[in-house]
Design brief:
The complex is a heterodimer of chains A (109) and B (117).
Chain A: E1 4-7, E2 10-14, E3 19-25, E4 29-37, E5 43-49, E6 52-56, E7 59-64, E8 69-74, E9 83-91, E10 97-99, E11 103-108
Parallel strand pairs in A: 2-11
Antiparallel strand pairs in A: 1-3, 3-8, 4-5, 4-9, 6-7, 7-8, 9-10, 9-11
Chain B: E1 5-7, E2 10-13, E3 19-24, E4 31-37, E5 44-50, E6 53-56, E7 65-68, E8 75-79, E9 88-95, E10 107-108, E11 112-116
Parallel strand pairs in B: 2-11
Antiparallel strand pairs in B: 1-3, 3-8, 4-5, 4-9, 5-6, 7-8, 9-10, 9-11
The chains are: A mainly beta (109), B mainly beta (117).
Chain lengths: 109, 117
């Protein structure tokens, strides 16, 4: 079993829909990251969380440390949001980033 | 806005050949990471530098892979000889400073997509 699990693996949506991507982890962490990877390969950091909730534009990230779970929400989705969204956690014990396999999102007009 | 630079963006090579990738981190970033990302998977850390020193290369296949950051600025990752299973995206990332108990954001380069034939 992977230490970081994401769901769903693939997600399609119509423009304007509210989207949720989930991340569960099984290790103790010092921080959780949400990353966005476009088809060209480059990765952009969206959020770094250690507790609570963060919001940036149409993106909202939440984390529940007790339940070892985080969600990334996209409100009013747009075709330009189409990308792979990756959850990564920094292990408290090893200090290494452990990556999920990503959620591929496609938003259609 | 400062970015992590990588070259080449794409590389096609035949197995048993040598390949090299270059990364120039954001100016002033002390920590540099090389990751390998196989299609459909998340990135996997190959090597981490703090300035010019290797701090973690536990997942680097040292029989064929080598990495250096001689002056603590830019870095080169080499594979010799390349194997079919090395086909992947090779990502470089950098971060400013990481002190004990703290974390900071990693900034990723565009990656080098390697295809081994």
């Amino acid at each position: 079993k992977n230490e970081v699990e994401q769901s769903p693996q693939n997600l399609t949506a119509q423009e304007g829909e509210f989207i949720t991507i989930n991340c569960s982890y099984s290790v103790g962490i010092s921080a959780l990251h949400w990353l966005q990877q476009h088809p060209g390969g480059g990765i952009v950091s969206l959020f770094m969380l250690s507790s609570g909730k963060k919001k940036h534009g149409r993106l909202i990230a939440t984390i529940n440390i007790q339940e070892k779970h985080s969600s990334l929400h996209i409100t009013a989705s747009h075709p330009r949001d189409s990308a792979v969204y990756i959850c990564a956690v920094r292990s408290y014990n090893t200090d290494k980033l452990i990556f999920g396999t990503g959620t591929r999102l496609q938003v259609f007009p | 806005e400062a970015e992590v630079a990588q070259s080449p963006r794409y590389k096609i090579t035949e197995k048993s050949q040598a390949v090299a990738f270059w990364c120039d981190p954001i100016s002033g970033h002390a920590t540099l990471y090389w990751y390998r990302q196989i299609l459909g998977q998340g990135p996997e850390l190959l090597v981490q530098f703090q300035d010019e020193s290797v701090v973690d290369d536990s997942q680097l296949p040292k029989d064929r892979f080598s990495a250096e950051r001689l002056k603590g600025v830019d870095s080169t990752l080499k594979i010799q000889p390349a194997e079919l299973g090395d086909s992947a995206m090779y990502l470089c990332a950098s971060s400013l400073v990481r002190t004990s108990g703290a974390t900071d954001t990693q900034y990723f380069g565009p990656g080098t997509r390697l295809t081994v034939l």
